[in-house]
Design a protein that fits this description.
The complex is a heterodimer of chains A (about 650) and B (about 110). With about 650 residues, chain A is of the alpha+beta class. Helix content of chain A is about 35%, strand content about 25%. In chain A, the strands form eight sheets. In chain A, strands 2, 3, 4, 5, 10, 18 and 19 form a seven-stranded mixed sheet that branches. In chain A, strands 12-11-23-22-21 form a five-stranded antiparallel sheet, sandwiched between helices. In chain A, strand 11 (about 240-250) and strand 12 form a beta hairpin. Chain A is elongated. The model of chain B is unreliable at about 1-5 (pLDDT under 50). The interface of A and B includes residues 203 and 221 of A.
């Protein structure tokens, strides 16, 4: 019994020692793995089950003033090959070429190259991506890459600009506001399983990389479309080389439209030439020609050198000055200052410039912002070439008077006219209203900014009235007239310098028109410039109608009511309407005796208005559709001062 | 009578036997305690494993949801682009002209209401 107990104790002690040794071995191994080799093993382990996921930058969007998207970002897939892993390059190259619509030889060359990695095609369509996925070929894979889309195509292409493959802005607003809209590249370490699938055991917080901010522009897509369409139509019609149209809000400096021709689609920027990509409105300067006479007129009126009705002798079309002969298109004798502006007499303006003197004229050229950057938030702006008065030769005073020998950008010129339109303030133009962060905070806001007062309100008003004469009968800009509105503006037909031979090219001209409408309460200032038209060169013919069409469309879009009622055409009865309405009167021809109350019942709203206008009646309208009831009732007596109340339905 | 019988019986238990009984009970308590500790430890380990499995399972769910979210965001963006493309002024104007035969209003067709 005792011996058995001793045996048990011995066995127990042996087991204890055994377990103790085992624990010691295990503990020692644990120390070796966890402490001595811990860091190294941890690294090896993490390499196997942790993966860094790169979160691509999400570029912010560009919107017009109404929230229409002009540039958006999405992710596209790009196909790559790892040539060393490809088993059968011959067969695979055929399939890949067919899916990706590439030449077989090109694909084969790429997938047999002695390189560890080659791109086969960047940013493929979702259909192509699906087919590549289905192919499930070893050594062929796809990466997600950000891709920039411009849903409006070529609309404002040069202004918006474009981004490169790495999602960095390269031109236009994409470049200017790149730091705000770029977004940040982020990464997140996540666990992955044996099949390489992502297992988000740490949650999704790390995956949320804030996207870039959105830019809201002052641009109006509808006005931009009208400007581009009308500009192109004129350029095609007159076989011109290029053109620019700008529409600006005169009191704020907001750019509503900025159109360039030739057009440019940023969706395929690589295929387009540098000539198409150029935003001529800010990067090109040109000799403005007669549109610059307005600047001299403003300076002379402001300085009190001339009055609206002061007379000048225009030398019957030929005026010897500083050893040269200055010509007018038509011979004129005595003309008032306002008439000189209306007919755009070079001789008349030379004489005005002689009275003003070059120093004062030069000061106003500078005050109107010529020779300086306007400060618009678009890259690539140039200042134009304006010389100091000290370097002017004797003839320069005359040539500067009619806008030659000086160069301006289209934007500078339109802003100078905006200063006349708004009562004398030179405004800084801007295109981006706000930059808004993904959290909804306003990161940047452009406000209207007055650069300086250039002329007094009185001078601006007087000059506006003189510029209205330019678009009236007898002026050079009659074709700019917008029905129902008073238009103030000026035509220009400038000679172009010949860079090869020197001097001016014999046939090359720049036709332009700059103006604002309605003249007395301007809602928009617009410039149209047609470069090297062949069929007709005059600004009053090639550019003024474009101004009219843009202004007409823009005013309608902005719901600006005409100042004068348009003449009402003879009404035309439509058979469908006759069927719908049983009782009808002919709207245009009064069918009543002198004192019988006219009958409006059964007429449509338009017909009733036309009839009331013809009969010079006052109306009060209630409802829409067709007149079902009127007061006073038809047939009875009525007085001319009485207001007719029409109830409409339907 | 009963008391006289039980008293000698109590006296017959030897102190040695009593000691071994106590040791046996202590040993049994130790075994129970060790077993309880072992079972507790196993339970903790099992709970830990179960929790870890739940975390991994939730990780998969999150991963799937995150992928779906990305996919839907991408689809949403594609739809925005498509909408903006098909409602571009250029396309709308051309459709209005060609398909619907709409034209710009003529002179006098626009009447401003008083």
């Amino acid at each position: 019994m005792r011996r058995q107990s001793q045996n048990n104790h011995r066995r127990l002690a042996t087991a204890k020692i055994l377990f103790l040794l085992m624990f010691l071995v295990i503990g020692g191994r644990a120390i070796q793995l966890q402490v001595l080799q811990g860091a190294k093993l941890m690294r090896l382990g993490q390499r196997q089950h942790l993966k860094e996921w790169i979160v691509l930058p999400k570029r912010g969007a560009l919107f017009d003033r109404a929230g229409e998207p002009l540039a958006l970002s999405m992710e596209s897939q790009s196909v790559y090959a790892r040539p060393h892993r490809i088993q059968d390059p011959h067969q695979l190259s055929g399939s890949l070429a067919q899916i990706l619509n590439l030449p077989v030889a090109d694909v084969k060359q790429k997938i047999t190259a002695e390189k560890p990695f080659v791109w086969l095609k960047r940013q493929v369509s979702s259909m192509e991506a699906e087919k590549i996925q289905a192919l499930n070929a070893d050594g062929i894979g796809m990466f997600y890459e950000p891709s920039r889309q411009y849903p409006q195509g070529q609309l404002a292409g040069q202004l918006i600009g474009f981004v490169g493959r790495d999602s960095e802005g390269l031109e236009g607003l994409e470049l200017k506001y790149n730091e705000y809209i770029r977004g940040e590249t982020g990464s997140s370490i996540t666990e992955r399983d044996a099949l390489g699938r992502r297992v988000l055991v740490q949650g999704v917080e790390g995956l949320h990389i804030p996207p870039g901010s959105d830019v809201h522009l002052t641009l109006d897509t509808s006005i931009q479309h009208i400007a581009e369409k009308e500009l192109e139509a004129s350029i095609v019609k007159y076989r011109a080389k290029a053109g620019v149209a700008i529409v600006v809000e005169p009191f704020t400096g907001e750019v509503l439209a900025l159109a360039n021709y030739p057009s440019f689609d940023p969706n395929g920027y690589a295929k387009e030439s540098a000539n198409q990509r150029r935003n001529r409105a800010v990067t090109d300067s040109f000799e403005p020609g007669s549109t610059f006479k307005t600047i001299l007129a403003a300076a002379s009126l402001e300085e009190g050198i001339v009055g609206k009705d002061d007379l000048f002798y225009c030398e019957m079309g030929k005026y010897p000055y500083a050893g040269k002969i200055i010509h007018d298109t038509h011979p004129y004798g005595w003309l008032s200052f306002s008439k000189i502006l209306q007919v755009s007499s070079n001789i008349g303006f030379t004489k005005v410039a002689e009275k003003l003197k070059k120093d004062r004229y030069s000061r106003y050229i500078e005050k109107f912002g010529f020779g300086q950057l306007t400060g618009i938030d678009v890259p690539g702006e140039v200042a134009g070439a304006v010389r100091k008065p000290e370097s002017w030769s004797a003839i320069d005073l005359a040539t500067h008077a009619f806008g030659q020998g000086i160069s301006t950008t289209p934007l500078q010129l339109v802003m100078a006219y905006a200063a006349i339109a708004n009562g004398g303030f030179l405004m800084r133009p801007y295109i981006a209203r706000q930059v808004i962060s993904p959290q909804g905070e306003v990161v940047l806001e452009n406000q209207p900014h007055v650069v300086r007062r250039v002329i007094s309100e009185k001078t601006a008003k007087l000059l506006s009235s003189m510029l209205q004469d330019v678009t009236n009968e007898g002026g050079t800009g009659v074709m700019a007239n917008v029905e129902g509105f008073d238009v103030a503006g000026k035509t220009g037909t400038a000679q172009k310098a010949d860079p090869v031979r020197g001097g001016y090219a014999a046939k090359k001209r720049v036709g332009s028109f700059v103006g604002f409408v309605p003249a007395n309460n301007p809602r928009l200032v617009a410039l149209v410039l047609i470069d090297e038209p062949e069929v007709n060169v005059y600004g009053g013919v090639v550019a003024a109608p474009v101004f009219r069409n843009i202004a007409q469309g823009a005013l309608r879009h902005l719901a600006v009511a005409p100042e004068r009622a348009a003449p009402i055409p003879a009404p035309q009865r439509e058979p469908e309407m006759s069927r719908r309405v049983a009782k009808r009167n002919n709207a245009g021809t009064p069918d009543l005796s002198a004192d019988a109350t006219p009958d409006f019942v059964g007429l449509s709203l338009r017909e009733a208005l036309e009839k009331a206008q013809t009969l010079k009646l006052k109306l009060r309208l209630q409802g829409n559709g067709y007149v079902v009831k009127q007061s006073p009732a038809p047939g009875g007596r009525w007085s001319e001062d009485e207001t007719f109340v029409l109830n409409l339905q339907g | 009578m009963g008391a006289t019988v039980s008293a000698p019986a109590r006296r017959t238990t030897s102190p040695k036997r009593e000691r071994s009984g106590r040791a046996e009970r202590r040993g049994r308590r130790q075994i129970f305690f060790t077993a309880f500790l072992g079972l507790g430890l196993i339970a903790v380990v099992l709970v830990h494993v179960w929790l870890r499995l739940q975390v991994v399972k939730t990780g998969y769910v999150l991963s799937t949801a995150s992928k779906l979210q990305s996919h839907l965001e991408q689809e949403n963006q594609e739809l925005k682009i498509e909408l903006a493309t098909i409602t571009s002024p250029d396309r709308l104007e051309s459709l209005a002209h060609r398909r619907l035969g709409l034209v710009q209003p003529e002179k006098g067709q626009i009447i401003i209401l008083p």
